[in-house]
Design brief:
Helices cover about 30% and strands about 25% of the residues. By secondary structure, the protein is α+β, with helices and mostly antiparallel strands. Strand 9 and strand 10 form a beta hairpin.
């Protein structure tokens, strides 16, 4: 395998951008963010054809209960990968996929007890052990009216309220605003005992905002106070709501945060808004009803 420094950013970015299952989570910007000032340690593996061109790749990022502790055991999560060149014969795509999974599996050990492939777009050719299936919600957005028209009656009322309640959603204007969002996220994920995104990654996204277009941090404010925010990923068609948080003591802050992210996505030219997960089929999930209140199509994807 080539050294990562020798790989053309443009070749990698083009491979993902033109792939029917491509997403920001396999993009070189994602790799750079995790390795920006030691935000974490993502890993990426490539497969090459006879002409030394990329015909397959998989990128996985670390997921930990203590994300700022480099020595704490972590999972490696590959969102929407591996990717293989679509024009290749099915047999060849299966072969490349298995080679990439095999290479990624070698990372498993004491410090990486779990490796998970999270399918987001029903990528074919994955022939490995199925862990479970998960539900996803994706909403088509075409104009301001489409953000509201498909919402439930209750959510429509909430959406009308936030337009008169002086919420403001935008990219953070200061380090203090970023830190306030990080504190909200950390408190919430400690409470629900789930792995949290490292604060250093949020800071890396903000710091590199002028150099990369794949990821953005948004904060929600009311009367000058941070009461929510989100981390979104963008490609040419879809906005992915990767992380979202709101201050429960501020009424409708969650609605304002998601609505603000959808409006931002619309402004950036996206056609779809992906809520990124509403739990497992048949198992209660706290925010499922909230997300589904915005409308959209429920999809079922596999994890491996």
């Amino acid at each position: 395998m080539k050294e990562i420094q020798a790989i053309s950013y443009q070749e990698w970015a083009n491979f993902v951008a033109h792939h029917p299952f491509g997403s920001p989570f396999q993009h070189p910007d994602f790799y750079k963010l995790w390795n920006h000032k030691r935000s974490g340690a993502s890993v990426v593996f490539f497969h090459w054809d006879e002409d030394n061109k990329i015909d397959g790749l998989v990128l996985a990022y670390p997921c930990s209960y203590f994300p700022e502790n480099r020595w704490w055991p972590k999972a490696l999560v590959a969102l929407n990968g591996p990717l293989t060149r679509p024009a290749l014969p099915e047999k060849k795509q299966i072969e490349i996929t298995q080679a990439l999974i095999s290479q990624l599996s070698r990372e498993k050990g004491w410090s990486v007890p779990l490796i998970e492939l999270r399918n987001m777009k029903n990528i074919p050719w994955i022939n490995t052990k199925i862990d479970d299936s998960c539900l996803n919600l994706c909403k088509e957005i075409s104009d301001e009216e489409s953000l509201i028209n498909t919402a439930s009656r209750r959510q429509k009322r909430n959406l009308r309220k936030i337009n008169t309640e002086n919420f403001w959603v935008a990219e953070p204007e200061s380090e203090e605003e970023v830190n306030a969002l990080i504190q909200l996220l950390q408190r919430h994920y400690r409470r629900i005992r789930k792995p949290c995104i490292p604060g250093s990654l949020l800071k890396a996204i903000v710091a590199t905002g002028a150099k990369q277009e794949s990821f953005r941090v948004l904060v929600t404010k009311k009367k000058g106070k941070i009461c929510g925010g989100s981390v979104i990923a963008l490609d040419k068609k879809t906005c992915y709501e990767w992380y979202i948080i709101s201050d429960r003591s501020v009424k409708n802050s969650g609605v304002a945060t998601t609505y603000g992210a959808m409006r931002y996505a619309l402004k950036e030219g996206c056609y779809y808004f992906d809520f990124m997960g509403i739990g497992r089929p048949g198992i209660p999930y706290g925010v499922r009803d909230f997300k589904m209140g915005f409308g959209g199509e429920v999809q079922e994807y596999r994890r491996y």
